[in-house]
Write a structure and sequence with these properties.
- This protein has one domain: Jelly Rolls (Sandwich), CATH 2.60.120.
- Helix content is about 0%, strand content about 50%.
- It is built from no helices and 14 strands.
- The strands form four sheets. Strands 4, 8, 11, 12 and 14 form a five-stranded antiparallel beta sheet that branches.
- A hairpin with a 5-residue loop joins β6 and β7.
- The model has no long low-confidence stretch (mean pLDDT about 90).
Length: about 180
Amino acid sequence: MAASAMDLTTRLVASLTGEAIKTGYEFGAPTLPIRHTFDDSLADGDGADQANQVYQDSASVIADAETSYDLAGTLVDEFGGTITFTKIKGIVLLNKSTTASVLQIGGGTGLDGTNAFDTWITSTAADGSEGVLVRAGGLFVLWAPDATAYAVAAGTGDILVIKEKSTLAAVFELSIIGVV
């Protein structure tokens, strides 16, 4: 079955706020406001500032195990259609674990680089084990709204892996936004 027809609009909002206060002052302690916000939207389509497909998963992975996502041909969307991404515009991975679990998101079967979706990683390790560690309660966000985004090469560069790197099981949520 081909990818389901859908109209897709997405919005990514991230905000970091806070305040740093210098201690040791009796009156008028100096403060530093912390304010960083990011707000971007993608309309339906396949060009710059556009995406037309979403994949979402809530899963668990046992200690030292992995979950692989074939971005070009085996994912199924919420409407029952097979997804064959050609570009990835965004990935959001939330490690929902309450233990000290650590997830690694990277490319290739066994994180060995085989058929790795790793166009978003600037260098590759000799053993292909490149990726980003996401600790318990942590969040990983990759966002590329431009027309190029991150290429997916069916059969040779389309495997995204999430591996549990500690001795504990992990629970996570994953969203992938892209173009088919």
